[in-house]
Amino acid sequence: MPDAAALPTELPERLSETGLYADIATYAVAPDFVAFSPANVLWSDGAVKNRWYRLPPGSVIDSSDMNHWRFPVGTMLFKEFAREGKRLETRLIWRVDDTGNRERDMLMGAYLWNDSETDAVFVKAGAEDVRGTDHDVPAADTCWRCHIGEPGQILGLSALQLGDVSALPLSVPPEGAPFAAPNAALGYLHANCGHCHNPNGSAWSRSNLVLRLDVEERDAATTMIEQSTVGVPLQNWLDHGYTYRVVAGDPDQSAIVARMSQRDVNIQMPPLATEHVDETGIALVRAWIQSL
After folding, report:
1. Which of 195, 207, 242, 255 is 20 to 30 A distant from 102 in Cα terms?
2. What is the pTM of this model?
């Protein structure tokens, strides 16, 4: 394991100082980084995203809980966002210690690309409407609103999202692999809603709603997502003409569809990091509800 004392306590000021690029002038990623794509993608207003991770040499991912991997000290993950042909931001998660204090152990933040795309600078406070778009770069302290719901703090690099994990250095063999969501709609909800709507998530105390999948859940009808949505009365948002979270066979009377279709910060779902409705995602969820 890398010496935590040799790792930073704050993120570097520039993306070029993080080690992601072998040559940032040509955008050549360092050879020890691995590109990956999750099976179920978080909607980011149509942004094109690239993702890379790096594990410390010789390290192992703690997969004793296949739903919640624990990554070794020194692990780095990057996610680049582009829209309208422009690089906008690159986010970084860096595990730098193992104290049990998540804010100390995990550094999180975003780098805003300059207009010439020669480098990106760490923007701790975030930035709005960057580079002539309506894309907002999140402040570093808002990252935890989503990542707090995952015990290992890392969301997209997981057994369910990767499917075939046979090439990864896991501490426990992946029984039941390859992993997959029971259907596309539940996979969509897992990726877009499950990080907050689970027993560890920031929305749990207000809703007791589970929109996160476990790797063991192969039958849609027995998933916690269906059990906590279909025919379940609303706990919140009671004055908008809806009674149930999901009405089997009737997406138009299902509150989950109604809130996904909104872009008002007081009622929309997801509640942050999106200003445009995901019509494709809504179509998946509507088709699932119609089939019930």
Report:
1. 207
2. 0.95
